[in-house]
Specification:
1452 residues; mainly beta; six-stranded antiparallel β-sheet; six-stranded mixed β-sheet; 18 helices
């Protein structure tokens, strides 16, 4: 209560002592204070007063600004500093204090940091403080939500909203604090994206909030849900198979918030076994966000993508192309690194990623190293493994470094791992998780792989921390059109030219005796999917037919079945592609906006297509008459085996092509020309393969989501086969609802190019559609029974649960109690079953009353909203069951047949039925195969029952007792294994496709199943018998046409060419003019020469002998050649079978083939052959070679030694003046199994080949010429005596005792070219008396002339005359005559040849010495060895007249 405080308030002062007293003034008001202070002394009357005056004041502090506004702040990020001044306007020191922390409550969006937070302002002084704000959350959205755009929407608040906070400034001495109003425009995480090709420069933007950027347009915001239609998408365009393409999605962080993100593709991710063990997405995002927050503003944070570290490469490169070696070289060395399964290792631990096609050159690193991805299973790579198999020397020789080979192997392993799910497409995302730094850039590289053709549609799913809440994401469509064929023909196959277009298989050339030829080739599969390859054969003439009646195109109303790529995408995505026939629409994704709802509605309208549409395909070529078809069956002479085979994944399949000889041709010009058209489709287990791939993808998704499988993945794991069956069933309903529009007679004309084509087959090969009211009766079926068995027996006694056997249509087939007994169990199907909500909500009787089927142990709702059904019924688990079935206990032997989802749902149903103890009871996996020859009736329920009613014998065969028209069913007449009779009622759903058949096993009875359910485990035997409807009163609607190319994945065309030619051997001998003139045409001619007299001093053999004399000049011409070698060559590549026979005076001495023993005759000498050609039916002759078949392989030869036998020719055929004689023969080459055919030009093709043989036999022939005498030869003789011609040597009258001897000379010349050995002989005659009268002068002379050979003397009587003798042409004539006189001296003479004198004519001098005065007339003959002789007459008359004793002219 006192205004003053004294310290000390009481004191003692000693004399002359001074003390200080502290006085404090305390006031309660601001005023002008005045008071007196009295100092009271004890024991002293004096009082001292002190006048106190004071001006009482408070601190006066002001702020330089009452408001701090931050124009751009980001959640969780410290803003820039803002400075304000504190001014003290009073003369008192002012102590201030700011509260810390500044977040006042949960509704506060800002945290404020002021430095310094406390202090003292000197009187009349000032101080500077800095203000930072950290937004902790986005401000709430404004009341007017229409102004709140999607771009401003955050996880929980409004991005770009204003957050405000008042900060109190407390001053000492002042009760009321001062307020600083702080406001900030808070932005959340804002990401933009753009899609650029790999290697291109990305756009540069200003990294600030989108609301503050005035040049927005190059990039696009990352929002929620599916991207809008006008925004860019990841479109790879068109890509060939076995190649890859890369695109980059560049993420821009417009905010100052480091944003962690994860990226993956929805349908076709790469197969990574490690992804199953990866942490969940939420955990990854949270860990990355924590690391980013802790390293915000630090240089050692999470690595940010930089294009300086990224490669620059071509957008597309083939998997089988060689790498560019020049890219590896640079600096001191190069290193390569490529990782498929890249994972984030934390801040600062990631190395810059190297592109898949590029090589990173690192300086200072010597040598080359390459790391390849390890693959556990050994499979065939997409790239050939030639570099791995090369020896080390080959790599050094070719200049290919080890880094190139390692890079190729790494490339192979990447593609193998990427396409390991066998879906046909895979998209690799790198990195799959990272952080975009504040105002930074990050790049996601997407690399697509494909080994199946078609359209791939997927979505890139981005989840960003701070931008997307749980269950939200941003989806960018990914599109790829892959073209090509996964089937290929490997290189280096015998007879296969893979470089042709199309490839050509040369089946070779055969002859009719070979019957057929075989070629094998293999087809490879470059994909991870098994493909069923079937072949069709077309003659080339059929495809090239241009007849006017040919229709090139066919238009038909077909079922709407999706392509292989769409089917795979639908099976992989599950709920993403809405089934237009499904009853339950897909639930909307949480967090979608009104704009998203509009977009989804548009997509639903686009996808809601009818299950049928008009399609156009190429029509089948018209049938033609194949000239080379087999005569017996009319089938093509070429066939391929097998006609259908499965080409395994990354494997090969062998096929055999057999060409049968049907019609031989004259030449080999690829007359057999056929096209093999291969069509590759998926195998029947394709839905199960996709289901397994979905299961793996769902497991990976489950691991990424932290163990909670999202509804999308759950729906994806549903069996694709069941979905397809439901789709077909719904399609059948809509098809039957189509109105039947009958066409009038004139509606269509025969020449219409768009004439409607109606096919009898259905629109699905797996589920044949039948006409309404028509049924198909199949001759049998093969049943593969796969069952799940739960042997409850008496394990749960005394409980007796209530069993309901519920069919997918909702009909309860069995309703009974399960009594605990030995060898009792429950059996169920091995695939999951689904029922609609309508069926699940049907009431059924129970103990407590009526309940819905969904409340039983056999129907319940799955997590994805569908209704699971377990259709189970009791069975006897006895010894016969164990014998019939192959049983596996507790272990699933084949997940493709026993689907894991069906196993788990069956186990769950048993637990609900028997209690928790059933979980420890093992499930039995059972399989049985049964071939039944019992007919199977297929059709709608009404048509099948109506057909059975009309055919009682068919009912008896199917073990059906009666037809129940009221309940649309039948009563089966059954018999169990004990022979006991029983009846069982079956009810069919109306307007559904059913199969009625006879069930065999422990119970034999009639049974029925829905068609799609029956085809899951059985195969119908073809062909069926179609029973048309009777008594319906209307025309049955026509079924839908079937597109032949539906489901076609790959195609392959191979040209098969070959020939069957008439066998012909060629002879290296051209035809001569003589052969052509004789009518032989182009047949070769071989000549033989025989000389009756061998040449002098030379031995006659089989070879050619020239007409010459030893040591003399050679004379042109062959005088002897009795043996010729005829060589036949097989010009083809096929083997030719033939036999040889001879006609004429010739024989075969030896037949020689290379590598075989020669064949020689075994006949006696001097055998005779008939001069007629031998036929195939003739018996072998004595030489042992006629009829013997010789086989001449391709390009091989056979040589025949043929001998000329002139002695076989009759000798009487020689004429007197004939020096040589020509004998002809023929060598026949006969080809067995080759009947005469008509050639293309209509001429006959003979089965024999002829070689003409010409033999020339020569004998010596001499001529006599008389040297003329002027006295006796009034006219010079210009003719010479040859053969029978007579030459007279006239001597005239000679004195008997004359002093001189009269001499005449004759010249003996050799006309032939062979030596003539001659001898002079006298031809005597008997002297006869002359007739008395009537004789001519010549006859008179003949009768009375003396024949005295001694009257004529010859100087030479024998000798050898070489021929031909020298002669000359007589002037003025064409006759040749020996030179009678030596040439005149003035005539120029040539130099004589060596041995020329041997060919001069022989001059014989004849002397006439008569002994009587009689007429002498003697006939002499020049006898020639082996040749005809020449006669001449010497005539002279003896005389006693002296006048006749004159000297000769020569003597004178």
């Amino acid at each position: 209560d006192e205004d003053f405080i004294f310290r000390p308030s009481c004191l003692v002062l000693w004399p002359e002592q001074t003390a200080e007293v502290e006085v404090k003034l305390r006031t309660r008001e601001v005023e002008q204070y005045r008071a007196l202070i009295e100092a009271v002394s004890f024991d002293s009357p004096s009082v001292s007063c002190l006048d106190v005056t004071a001006d009482v004041q408070l601190p006066k502090v002001r702020l330089s600004s009452q408001r701090c506004h931050f124009a751009e702040t980001y959640v969780g990020t410290k803003s820039e500093a803002m400075a304000i001044e504190l001014y003290n306007d009073s003369r008192l020191p002012a102590t201030f204090c700011w509260p810390q922390p500044s977040a006042a409550g949960p509704s506060t969006c800002l945290e404020v940091f002021i430095e310094p937070s406390e202090g003292t302002l000197p009187p009349l002084g000032s101080a500077k403080v800095t203000v930072h704000v950290v937004p902790i959350r986005l401000p709430p959205p404004p009341v007017n939500r229409s102004s709140w755009s999607t771009a401003n929407r955050g996880v929980s608040g409004c991005s770009g909203g204003i957050a405000e906070l008042c900060m109190p400034l407390t001053l000492t001495g002042l009760l009321q604090p001062m307020l600083l109003r702080i406001s900030a425009r808070v932005f959340g995480a804002e990401l933009d994206y753009v899609v650029v090709p790999l290697g291109d420069e990305y756009p540069q933007i200003t990294h600030q909030a989108r609301a503050l950027d005035t040049h927005v347009g190059q990039t696009h915001p990352v929002g929620r849900g599916r991207v809008a239609q006008d925004l860019p998408k990841v479109d790879f365009g068109e890509m060939e198979l076995l190649k890859s393409k890369s695109l980059q999605v560049v993420l821009y962080n417009r905010s100052g918030i480091p944003t962690a993100f994860t990226a993956h593709v929805e349908r076709f991710p790469i197969f990574n076994a490690k992804s199953v063990e990866a942490p969940g997405v939420e955990g990854q995002l949270s860990s990355l966000a924590t690391a980013a927050r802790s390293n915000a503003g630090s240089t050692c944070g999470v690595e940010v993508f930089s294009f300086a570290n990224e490669p620059r490469a071509a957008p597309s490169r083939g998997l089988d192309e060689d790498l560019d070696i020049t890219n590896l070289k640079g600096g001191n060395g190069g290193s390569t690194k490529s990782s498929l399964h890249s994972t984030s290792k934390g801040a600062g631990s990631q190395r810059p990623r190297i592109g898949r096609h590029e090589h990173k050159v690192r300086r200072g690193h010597q040598g080359s190293q390459a790391k390849t991805a390890s693959v556990k299973t050994r499979r065939r790579f997409l790239l050939e493994d030639k570099p791995a198999k090369q020896p080390p020397t080959s790599a050094a020789a070719t200049g290919i470094s080890g880094a190139v080979i390692a890079q190729q192997q790494d490339h192979q392993s990447q593609n193998m791992a990427a396409l390991g799910l066998a879906r046909g497409w895979a998209v690799k995302v790198e990195p799959h998780q990272s952080v975009v730094k504040a105002s930074g850039v990050s790049v996601i590289t997407l690399t697509c792989y494909s080994d199946l053709p078609g359209l791939m549609e997927d979505e890139l799913v981005l989840r960003c921390n701070g931008l997307h809440s749980e269950g939200e994401d941003f989806r960018i469509p990914v599109r790829l059109l892959s073209v090509g064929s996964p089937l290929y023909l490997p290189d280096q196959q015998v007879g296969l030219d893979v470089n042709g277009e199309p490839p050509t298989l040369f089946c070779g050339t055969i002859v009719p005796s070979e019957k057929s030829t075989v070629r094998r080739f293999k087809v490879g599969n470059n994909s991870f999917s098994k493909l069923n390859l079937s072949w069709r054969l077309f003659p080339k003439r059929q495809l090239q037919s241009i007849s006017g009646e040919r229709q090139l195109l066919t238009v038909g109303l077909c079922g709407h079945t999706c392509a292989p790529s769409e089917e795979a995408a639908a099976a992989a995505s599950g709920e993403k592609r809405r089934d237009p026939l499904a009853d339950d629409p897909l639930p909307a994704q949480p967090g979608t906006t009104e704009m998203d709802d509009v977009e989804v509605g548009i997509e639903e309208l686009e996808d809601d297509e009818p299950p049928f549409k008009f399609q156009l395909w190429a029509a089948e070529p018209p049938p033609i008459k194949d000239p080379f078809a087999l005569p017996d069956s009319g089938a093509a002479p070429l066939r391929v085996e097998p006609e259908e085979a499965v080409v395994p994944a990354h494997g090969t399949a062998w096929f055999t092509v057999t060409l049968t000889a049907s019609k031989p041709t004259d030449t080999a010009a690829h007359h057999y020309h056929y096209k093999l058209v291969g069509q590759g489709r998926f195998t029947h287990d394709r839905p199960q393969v996709l289901a397994d791939a979905d299961a793996k993808a769902a497991a990976a998704q489950n691991a990424r989501c932290g163990g909670a499988l999202p509804p999308q993945a759950t729906r994806t794991a549903q069996s694709a086969a069941v979905r397809h069956a439901e789709h077909e069933k719904s399609a059948a309903k809509l098809i039957r609802a189509l109105p039947n529009i009958p066409l009038e007679a004139g509606a269509l004309s025969e020449d219409d190019s768009d004439a409607e084509v109606v096919l009898l087959s259905g629109n699905s090969p797996a589920a044949p559609m039948t006409q309404e009211g028509a049924v198909r009766i199949y001759p049998g079926f093969t049943e593969h029974t796969y069952r799940l068995v739960f042997p409850f027996e008496d394990h749960f006694a005394p409980d007796a649960p209530h069993l309901l056997t519920i069919m997918p249509s909702g009909i309860v087939e069995n309703d009974k109690l399960l009594e605990p007994k030995k060898e009792k169990g429950l059996i169920a199907y091995t695939y999951p079953q689904t029922v609609s909500d309508e069926v699940a909500e049907r009431p059924v009787k129970a103990k407590g009353g009526s309940v819905q089927l969904r409340d039983t142990a056999f129907v319940w709702q799955r997590q994805d909203g569908t209704n699971a059904l377990v259709q189970t019924w009791p069975t006897n688990f006895n010894e016969k069951f164990r014998k019939d079935y192959e049983i596996f206990e507790g272990v699933n032997p084949d997940t493709a047949k026993f689907l894991p989802q069906a196993v788990s749902e069956f186990q769950e149903a048993m637990v609900k039925l028997f209690g928790s103890a059933a979980a420890s009871c093992s499930i039995l996996f059972c399989h049985k195969q049964l071939v039944s020859e019992s007919p199977a009736v297929v059709g709608t329920s009404e048509a099948v029952l109506g057909h059975l009613r009309e055919h009682p014998e068919l009912m008896h065969e199917l073990a059906i007792a009666s037809i129940d028209d009221e309940c649309l069913g039948f009563v089966a007449d059954g018999t169990n294994g004990k022979g006991e009779k029983f009846e069982k009622h079956f009810t069919l759903s109306p307007h559904e496709q059913y199969v009625v058949y006879r069930k065999t096993g422990w119970e034999v009875m009639g049974c029925s199943k829905p068609l799609d359910q029956f085809l899951h485990e059985a195969e119908l035997h073809e062909p069926p018998t179609v029973a048309e409807p009777k008594g319906t009163g209307r025309t049955a609607p026509r079924p839908l046409a079937e597109d032949p190319d539906c489901g076609l994945v790959a195609g392959l065309v191979v040209d098969c060419v070959g020939d069957c030619i008439l066998p012909r051997l060629i002879v290296d001998k051209s035809s001569s003019g003589e052969g052509a003139a004789s009518g032989a045409g182009s047949e070769p001619v071989f000549k033989f020469v025989h000389s009756a007299v061998p040449p002098p001093s030379q031995r006659v053999g089989g070879g050619a002998t020239l007409g010459t004399v030893p040591s003399a000049a050679q004379i042109p011409g062959v005088v002897s050649h009795l043996m010729r070698q005829i060589t036949f060559t097989n010009p083809t590549v096929c083997s030719i079978s033939c036999s040889f026979c001879m006609e004429g005076p010739f024989r075969i001495r030896e037949i020689v083939q290379a590598g075989r023993h020669p064949v020689r005759p075994h006949a006696r000498e001097g055998f005779q052959t008939k001069l007629r050609p031998a036929t195939l039916q003739s018996k072998p002759s004595d030489d042992g070679m006629l009829g013997q078949v010789f086989v001449i392989a391709g390009s091989e030869t056979v040589s025949l030694q043929v001998e000329f036998l002139p002695d076989l020719a009759p000798a009487e055929e020689w004429s007197e003046q004939q020096a040589e004689r020509v004998l002809r023969g023929t060598l026949f080459v006969e080809y067995p199994d080759c009947s005469a055919e008509k050639a293309d030009d209509g001429t006959d093709l003979q089965h024999q080949q002829r070689v003409r043989l010409v033999g020339i036999t020569r004998r010596p022939l001499v001529a006599v010429a008389v040297v003329p005498h002027a006295a006796f030869d009034r006219k010079l003789q210009t003719e010479r005596a040859v053969g029978a011609q007579l030459v007279t040597v006239e001597f005239g009258y000679v004195h008997v005792e004359g002093s001189t001897t009269r001499r005449r000379s004759i010249l003996l010349a050799n006309v032939s070219c062979i030596p003539a050995r001659w001898q002079l002989a006298h031809v005597g005659r008997k002297r006869r008396a002359a007739p008395a009268m009537g004789a001519t002068l010549a006859e008179e002379e003949e009768f009375r002339a003396l024949d005295d050979k001694d009257a004529f003397e010859f100087d030479i009587t024998e000798g050898e005359l070489l021929g031909p003798s020298k002669d000359g042409v007589l002037p003025g004539s064409n006759q040749r005559q020996p030179h009678l006189w030596p040439p005149p001296p003035g005539v120029a003479r040539r130099k004589p040849l060596e041995g020329e004198e041997h060919y001069e004519p022989t001059k014989i001098s004849i002397a006439f010495r008569p002994s009587k005065n009689e007429l002498y007339r003697c006939r002499f003959r020049i006898q020639v060895e082996a040749g005809p002789g020449v006669d001449f007459i010497c005539r002279g008359c003896g005389s006693y007249d002296e006048e006749d004793d004159a000297l000769d002219l020569e003597e004178a």
